[in-house]
Amino acid sequence: MTSANNAAIVEISQTANKFRSSIVLQYDNKYIDVKSILGLFTTLLTSSNYDLHVHGPDAEEAKKAMAEVFNKHNLQINSIQD
Q: In this protein, which residues make up the domain named HPr (predicted)?
């Protein structure tokens, strides 16, 4: 994994940790807690497309912030409306 990807993982996790909401990425049958750097390191691939699930009191703000940080690092996510 390149240092650019490492920077993306750290920024994604730091951004997620600013919110009280639960923020989870779904990839195939895997669910990744975005607040966990280790979880991101083991599963985040730049060529993949992920579903973003956000639940909690600040979900709308969290979705917007996560979309911005993923976009900044050229990672594709689908924001899932549950």
A: 11-71
